[in-house]
Amino acid sequence: MQTVINGVLTNYEVVNPKAEKDILLLHGWASNAAYWLPEMKLLDSSFCYYLLDLPGFGGTQNMGAHSGVPEYREFVKNFIDKLKLKEVIIIGHSFGGQIAADLAIKYPHLPRLLIFISPAIVRVRGPKIWLKIGVTKVVKPIIRFFPTHVMNFILGLYAPKDYIKANDYQKTVLHQILKYNLGVNLHSIKVPTEIVWGSEDKVIPYVGKYLIESIPQARLHVVYGTGHLPHLTHPAKLAAVLNQILLKQ
User: Fold this and answer.
1) What distance in Å separates the CA atoms of residue 8 and residue 60, rounded to the nearest whole number?
2) What domain of life (predicted)?
């Protein structure tokens, strides 16, 4: 399905459209709604699931230059308003969790429940990551005439993978979101919050304990044996945890 949000042609998917209770899924970095469709079909069918392609990913157009978390937050807010989602539950994976958290801080009564899956909320990327990105900017013009596979190999020695694979728009966004740390504002999230973390997640450092201590109504669920993408690697395990949460709603 498509609609227009903030002048941006926006793609989204819907699962169980006749259900009366709404859930909005916000995917992670370099992903899109399609990756989550199989997982949503394993979840409680009494909910209607809206899977949104965030700007610059999937079938949704880019937003303006230099868009960051606040711009994505407002985009999601306007999507919720336009589709008239009521008492919405928001599931946010990785970058999607960062957007959902910022939304709940700015609009405390908008979601009735947050479910974070390996959320990229507290940024712990240090100077080493910024050095890698800076070196990449210098190296890439020098090696741009090399064969693609050689260029990618050389870049792989210097740059974070999410930076290598990003297009120009995504690189600009990535710079913005890496600088946006919600840690000091987490106490402002007043709605019940369920945090789901894969025990083997190597992409986002484990900060679950910090989150449950910082968010007043937070609970932690560890999915053992899974990494950062449990919806792809262990969909049944993740569905079992999510359904346990949803059955109480």
Assistant:
1) 7
2) Bacteria
**pTM metric for this prediction:** 0.85
Q: What are phi and psi of 31, to 5 degrees?
A: -125, -170
Q: Where are the domains of the chain?
A: 2-123+181-246, 127-169
Predicted confidence (pLDDT) at residue 162 exceeds the cutoff of 90: no
Identity of the amino acid at 88: V
In sequence order, the β-bridge partners of residue 48 are: 22
Query: pLDDT category, 128, cuts 50, 70, 90?
Result: very low
What is the residue type of 200? E
Superfamily per CATH, domain 2-123+181-246: Alpha/Beta hydrolase fold, catalytic domain (3.40.50.1820)
Give the closest residue to 199 by CA, choosing from 221, 219, 217: 221
